[in-house]
Write a structure and sequence with these properties.
Helices cover 39% and strands 22% of the residues. With 92 residues, the protein is α/β, with parallel strands linked by helices. α1 links the parallel β1 and β2. It holds the Pfam family PTS_IIB.
């Protein structure tokens, strides 16, 4: 399993999302690699991703992908991120 977090430069909000996605995985007892990237390199980084976490403004730039693209409204809301990861990767 692979989660990619996307932002404009690949260091700010994607880094925050990466850390919080890793916390969500730990809390849920799930295992996945989490990679932070900038929107310009999304094609190379996310070609094998299961989930892409990002802000609404970058969804269009991601383009066609097999990954589930999830918009995170508040990058600091651990509950929102945990629920998103659980919906995408958890057992249903």
């Amino acid at each position: 399993m692979k989660i990619v977090t996307i932002c404009g430069a690949g260091i700010g909000s994607s880094g925050i999302l990466k850390v919080n996605a890793e916390k969500a995985l730990d809390a849920l007892g799930l295992s996945a690699s989490v990679v932070a990237a900038d929107v310009a390199s999304v094609r190379a980084v996310a070609d094998d991703a299961n989930v892409i976490l990002t802000s609404a403004e970058f969804v269009e730039a991601i383009g066609d992908t097999y990954a589930e693209v999830i918009v995170i409204r508040n990058h600091f809301d651990q509950g929102e991120i945990t629920m998103a990861v659980d919906r995408a990767l958890g057992e249903h």
